[in-house]
Amino acid sequence: MVWTDITRPQYRRKGLRYSSDTTDEEWRLISTHLPPPRRLGRPRTTDLRAVVNALFYIASSGCQWRLLPDSYPPYTTVQR
Prior knowledge:
Strand content: under 5%
Largest sheet: none
Structural class: mainly alpha
Radius of gyration: 15 Å
Oligomer: single chain
């Protein structure tokens, strides 16, 4: 892929905590495929965006589950 003046700003990850985190535009596309909160039972307390970002972090860095940074949900939550 050749970087041009048009494509370079499109793929810039500036302003994100980690380069593997999703941008707002990417999150809009991903969130439509995730299950909505259930009407019954205990309400969801974990932010799904944080879970997806944690999965992308592990996939891009190759780190172990237990070495997931504290800024993400616990690794057991992410695994589930």
